[in-house]
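Notes from the 1:1 (GR / supervisor)

We went over the backlog. Supervisor wanted to see one worked example end to end before approving the batch request, so GR pasted a single chain during the call. The sequence is below; no edits were made to it. Supervisor asked that the structure be written out right there so they could see what the output format looks like.
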Amino acid sequence: MKICLIAPVPPFRGGIAKYCYSLAKELETRHDLLLLSYRRQYPALLYGKKNQTDPEIGRGIVGEFSNLSFDIDSANPLSWGATARRIASFGTELVILPWWVVYWAPMYLYLLRFFRKKGIRVLLLCINVFEHEDSALKKFLTKLVLRRTKSIIVHSEQEKSEILEFHPEATVRKHLLPLFHYQPCDSRPRDDSMHLLFFGFVRPYKGLDTLLRALALLKERNITLQIAGEFWNDRESYEQMVEELGIRDKVRIIDQYLPDSEMSRYFAWADLVVLPYRRTRTSGIIATAYGYGKPVLATDIGGFHEVIEDGRTGKLAPPDDPEAFAAGIEWFIENREVDFSGNIRSFAAEKMSWRSLASMATE
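Structure output shown during the call:
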């Protein structure tokens, strides 16, 4: 089948680019794939001063795909037209559009109208349906785009239900977020401390303050926390909280983007990956942790209960509850003998495969 995937891939940074790259690799093995990525993904004004690409990667992946280009300018409608014409001239039978933020609404609405006129089938692959930090306008734009196609894949039952509420005629299928695979790195220190890792962008909805308060309840325990990832804003307030809670000796902050080459050291170091989120539907951090064979302690929100087998691959706690989160950490301290890595391998092989996602997308 001739398939086009329009998506950011490395050297663009972050979990979305890794997700799209992993899917593209699977599609490339079984279909005639046209992979179209971006010359400019976001205007600098929207992304702040942060670098959108990883300088360590470059565009070396071009050789991994038969038809890959970085030509789309997301902010230039002339580029959208050129992209649409290229897709049509390729003889495309199916276009896959990842969806995760409403920034893409104008470009996607243009493309969806073009594809409908040309009779080209479209699949919307919702990495997120609604944004983590949502608003009435964002929800309106999301619904406007999703109503333009009937074929949709989501990564949680909650998101499937949300779409069917406003788009009941859609065919919505669910597939758990597939596992990100990484090279193992054995660098865990030989000590008895429980090593906690909070990884990724630090944003208010991720509940880092809940984690810090939970850690303060466990001052007598031998625990070390590393917070590894860029602060979107307000790092100072977290630094102040660490001081006020008296846990400075237990916390290390690494406020920077970590490429894969460095990321592996932090996951190898960790005994437990922690996600004290207040709200979300899914998270690539769980798929990343599982890729390293690491268990997860997360709050029971969104679709987390679908991807975490309580007591086997991780554990769930109620959100905004430092006492409950502290109890979860203590559970892991007392249950180190559980074969989390083996349980994760079994679970992921059955339910978190890129092969099965690619098959579902092209059915």
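Supervisor's comment: DSSP finds 14 helices and 13 strands in the chain.
Batch request approved.
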